[in-house]
Amino acid sequence: MQTGQIFKRRGHWHLKFYRTDMVNGQPKRVRATRRLAPIGDQYRSKKDVRALAADILDPLNRGSVNPESGLSFAEFTEQQFLPHIKAKRKPSTAKFYRVLFENHLKDRVGKIRMRDFSTRHAQEVLDALDSTELTHQTLLRIKTTMSAIFTYARQREVIRHANPVQGCKAEGKRSQAERYAYSLDEISKMLTTLPEPSRTACAVAAFTGLRAGEIRGLRWEDYTGEELNVRRSVWETFVGEAKTERSEGAVPVIPVLREMLDDHKKRSPRKGGVDYIFAGEKMGFALQLDNLTRRTIMPALGEKWHGWHAFRRGLATNLYGLQVPPKVIQKILRHAAVETTNRHYVIIDAAESEAAMKRLTREMKRKGLKWGLGSKRGPAKTAKSRK
To answer: Is the Cβ–Cβ distance between 327 and 338 less than 8 Å?
Structure first.
């Protein structure tokens, strides 16, 4: 059991002790120094700072400190966390964490040891990034990345204390993200304006509500003439499973879409390999929808284009306007919870809200309902006013 050496230096009490760190991938016993407290009325002698030293030495003496906790934040993230995410999660998720770490965290807190990383460090990162005009949502994503790294560190027992990111607050510039939903009129104009294969791809998005990755992942074997079976998703050059288990399933094909898909199949050349419904020019792999957007859709539609996800919101909103029950819309969009459908995909604009309130007013008048207001005789008199 070590007791450490307490000494004075530059107006502070310091503790010198031994600990085990990872050096070149191997545990090695090294000598370390920690500053304890400033010399003053509260800490006049070694006896006064002995409790502070014990907080550092006790975990070491109990053997409860993992040598890997001596890794820096950057070393742990690059050597353990990112490889774990790459092996266990989707490529898009791995890229999400890697980009946020490299762009915002590595240079700011990368050198801090995992065992020394505190809530103050995490909050200082968020506060510093707040001054760079990042949005609130971006800061939340950075906070999520830090928290995920320390959650994995706790699972591996690299650290045994609480996640230091808990309790931090992300500020940032708050902005309302665009949540556009294409109307049936807008969709109709698109389908009479766009060339192929953009026209059929947009029709699939508009009339099935499939996500962009799911559209890219469609193969002719998934099309029965009556249904499109969602079995996979393609992101960049990676082919994987659908977003969630609930996302897999059959989506009905309405007659107008069936006709367009059948015509598209006749035009589609067979290039060997896997038969994607929307195949790119090279090797018959899944068509890159971003390229399709840049080359044909944007030139044709300009500002009227609001992205692929606006078709998914549009389907939910248009079905809701036709008085389709939310639970049915949830099933069509393959959401796990109807709350997700209602909150994020059914878009009610101000004009619809105003019209709804006018209908409510007309209904109240029709039924002759009274609420003690607006009477020709004025407000009802109370017992006190009659006196």
So the answer is: yes
